[in-house]
Amino acid sequence: MVGVSPEHTSVPAWPTDPGEIDPAGQSFQVLGSGRDGVRVARAWLAQIARTGRPVLSHVDGHTAPERSVAVAALGASLARARVGVRVMIAGPELVALDAIAAARAAGAIDAELRVWVSDRALKRVYCPHCRTFTVARVQVADTFACGGCARTLVVYHHLSRRHGAYLGFLADVQADAGDRGASG
Amino acid sequence: MSTPEQRLCVATIRRTGTVAHLRLGPSDGRPLGSFTPGSHILIQTPASVNAYSLTGPHVDPGAYEISVQRHRDRGGSAWLHQLSVGHTVSVSGPVSGFAPVLSAAHHLFIVGGIGVTPILSHVRAAVTGSRSFEVIDAHRPGPAAHRDELTRLCGSRLTTVTDRGALLQRLTERLADQPLGTIAYLCGPAEMMAAVRALADRLGWPAERIRSEAFTGVALAPGRPFRVRLARSRRRVAVAAGVSLLEALETAGIAVPHRCRQGVCGECRVGVLAGRPEHRDLYLTESERASGDALMACVSRCLDDELELAL
Lengths: 184, 311
Known about the structure:
CATH class of the largest domain in chain A: Alpha Beta
Radius of gyration of chain B: 20 Å
Shape of chain B: globular
Shape of chain A: elongated
CATH superfamily of the largest domain in chain B: Nucleotide-binding domain of ferredoxin-NADP reductase (FNR) module
Distance between the termini of chain B: 20 Å
Number of strands of chain A: 9
CATH architecture of the largest domain in chain A: 3-Layer(aba) Sandwich
Radius of gyration of chain A: 18 Å
Low-confidence stretches of chain B: none
Number of domains of chain B: 3
Oligomer: heterodimer
CATH topology of the largest domain in chain B: Rossmann fold
């Protein structure tokens, strides 16, 4: 987007390399999603196995219900986790953001998270007009139709980590001015 | 502390061993400001400006309460010890450098000796706010300052140890069994805090989960001479060994706001544009130190021969 430097936005620059496990970790929780995410998660699990440290793995299939089950399982087991745990997340950005939000809600901080993103094809976008979230195959600066109110939204380079959602804004404010009174 | 913010009057003074407890009240009856738990005040003594944690209630305090450990070689504490009721002292407003992390799931307080002082207001706030907490307290056998009050506040959430082996054993058990989302707060002798940090590190604690308050200024080496280049005024100033950057700037007629002159208060922060600072303060966070874009002029120096400053 013109005039905004990428490093000054909240859109994460994900590491390209899955990296090694953190040897300081006393226990591990690994979430892998999608074909590439599961491959990376298995490589991490093999490294962890060599340390002999306890590990819980949350590896999903490829359907959306299975992904949300894996994310929910991660959040539930982190609720019982102790400081010293390391959370390793590999998969599509949409799943990774949900897993990060679940880990942070359970009290994890960035230093305890390792994230590898396989692709950024799908995004959840928040519509501030009708307050719904839409998952769409879009990139930042693309336009799309909001699933809640059908307004044409631009995907803004602002990411809420709590909601795992990008912010949408109205592509053409003038065209929408007519029903401003109704929509707020 | 070039401009003391208020003159307070010693309302009561009592002693526990080598510790004097002073209540400093307003001499004009005006109410004192509330403060964040863990805050300290800076007190002007004839010898130095000293930082003391506020040990009393933090909301609408009737007086600022401090506990002063008497150090043989530090003139400020001896001077405070000989004060009596009715004396006035120059005191800064409360400075918060050791605040509670309100989002934490659990608070683990680790206390050594007189390091209890900033923890008291933390514990009181945790009790009032029904927050989950525990305290591990290490002090020498026998009576120690504030322990009656600490025991009353904590009940079964307090563990007391009186030797190093018992402390390390207890810490090893407790640091390994804290819910994710715990923040640990340390205050005690520098050597004890370093040992706790090393143990926590071995048990997988990220440094971000540990907050600490150093209550004794470490005597600093005189350091090597270096030069500074001032970007705005295009001047150069030499800093000799044994002279602080702040003093060298003052001698050159360049005013830098400052208060404590011991790397505690954060007032004399100066932007660094080039060169690598040698951080010797107790104020900047680890990430601020690593970024190297600011230093505390009162104590910090230069790892190389020259720094460029945003002055």
